[in-house]
Every structure is written in C-alpha cells, then in structure tokens.
Design a protein that fits this description.
CATH class: Mainly Alpha
Strand content: under 5%
Radius of gyration: 18 Å
Strand order of the largest sheet: 1-2
Number of domains: 1
Helix content: 40-55%
Largest sheet: 2 strands, antiparallel
Structural class: mainly alpha
Number of strands: 2
Shape: elongated
Number of helices: 9
CATH architecture: Orthogonal Bundle
Oligomer: single chain
Length: 164
Amino acid sequence: MEEGISAELIRSHLRCIKMLSNSCRYGIRAVIYLANQPLSSGKIGIKKISSDLNLPMPFLAKILQQLVKQKILSSSKGPHGGFSLLKDPRKITLLDIVTAIDGTDIFTDCVMHNGSCESIDRTKTKCPLHDDYDLIRRNMVKVFSNNTIHDLVVKANGPKNITI
C-alpha cells in the first residue's frame, strides 16, 4: 500500500466509519438505473424506479429532487413525467452524486473531533488517526472522481448487479 498504510489498517478504519448515507447509496443506484435505460424510453416515473430498485418511493423522490436541484437529473410532472439524466453519464462522477446528496463532510471532517481537520489544526492537536485518515480521504476523492456513472454501469453489466 501507499506510504506504509497496510490494507488491514484501511479496512479497520473503514469499518468504523459509515462512509455514505442511505440517501447517497439510493441516489447512486437510481442514477445508475436511469443511465442504463434506453434513450427512447424518455422520462422514467418515480413508481417504476422505486419498484424496480425496491426502494421506498417517498424517500427516493426526495433524493431525486436533490439531484434535480444539483442539475444531475431533470424531472417533469404529469402523466408522462418522471426523471432522466440531465448530463451524459460519462460526465457524471460518483463524487458529483456524493457531494450533491451527502455534501463534502466525509472528505473534510475529522474522524474523532467535531469539525473539519482544517479547523481542528488551528484550535487543537490533530487526532491520532489524522495522517492515516487523510491518506484514506485523498484516495476516496480519487476513486469517486475517477469513476463515472457510465463506468459503473459498464463494470456491473447493468443496474441489477449494483448493490450499494
């Protein structure tokens, strides 16, 4: 591993940290689902998305609206309404979705103290995990930035194989 961090150390850190919220995981699954739909299908209704992904409809609707506000999805109301991708899936990164739904705290906050590592650096001694977790954070940003929705659809051979 890079800079002397063992794989076991990384696994133990990640077991302690719930990386992504359920909202974020559901959002990723929904965007992958939409990316896998034929362009001719147009907008996909919330009932169909919810049913096909086995996700609670009211909760999913709120998540998808967040992605509409962040200009990742488009939506329309009415009998032929629903959701579709606003951007090319090759241009939507996992980082785009994570920051749209969960924000950037996972990439900035200290593991042990309240607040960002930058603010902790100014007011307190760094936590004992700071240097190790900083490396993990940088690698997470790299992984999330380098994986597009298109990449995930291709790697999984479709949305049914995505279990996030």
